[in-house]
Amino acid sequence: MTQIHRRLLHTGLQNYDHADFEVDSPFFSQALRAHRCPCCALGLQVFEHELETKPLKPGYSQVRWLHLEICPACGWWNFRQDHESSLFERPEEVSRSTWWELAHALQSEIKLGSTTLPVEMIKKHLLRRWEDRTLISAQQAEDLVASLLQEHHGGQVIRTTANANSPDGGIDLYLAYGNDGAVRRAVQVKRRIARDTEPVGEVRNFVGAMVLTGSDCGIFVTTASRFSAVAQSVPGIAKEAKFKLQLELVDGERLFEMLQATSSTMTAQFPPGVDPNQEWRGRNGRTILARELFNGDIRDWA
Is the pTM of this model over 0.85? Predict the structure, then answer.
């Protein structure tokens, strides 16, 4: 029986103010005061974005800084807008204060390997924890690859079997092109749980399946990080052989690049004033785009 692994996933945000902060659950309030994640109890990383502003007039205030504390493990975050203000009497003195409205991430528990988990949720989670690709089911891996290939190459996905565990003759699905779908690319998906390098054997088996089914174009996808050197030589050999096969190899690193490239099309909810292309600066001086900060993997940004 497949083990179900539980993970937290950002599914929205909730606004609150200082009054809510005082009366909210003690654990939540205490965690924020200690700058720790209320979900994981880990220390929060701090990022800030400075907005473009006009010269401040005496007696006025304006939002100038967006401030974020975020958990590098689960992605929970707490957000605030900071104002700068000046007094009529002493306009040269500028103070910084927090706006009354704050926001924090809403986290929902997902069960990796569950048959009811939508592929979009899998994609959002793997953007933050790509190593969890070893925890998804074979069917989820096939669904993930089908979605990414369709977005990357276009065409229509045609499955050869009802599910990933059924015999497929060495081809999991096709990418079909044209009004009649006559032009097709054969696709084979290999989910790897422990293996980090894809050996040549399965690639050669796929080439044989292409020959038997009359497919002259194919894509072999593995969740392993890389292909062996011998496996990498197969597309060149297949192209020069009798059947002149066009074979594309997609390893785990390339698959993750495709996932990152399609992440901009995913539905994302940002706090007020946040634009996906904003540059945010961490305490260590490094910058990161907002879309990566709120939806990507930030564990190496400590």
Answer: no
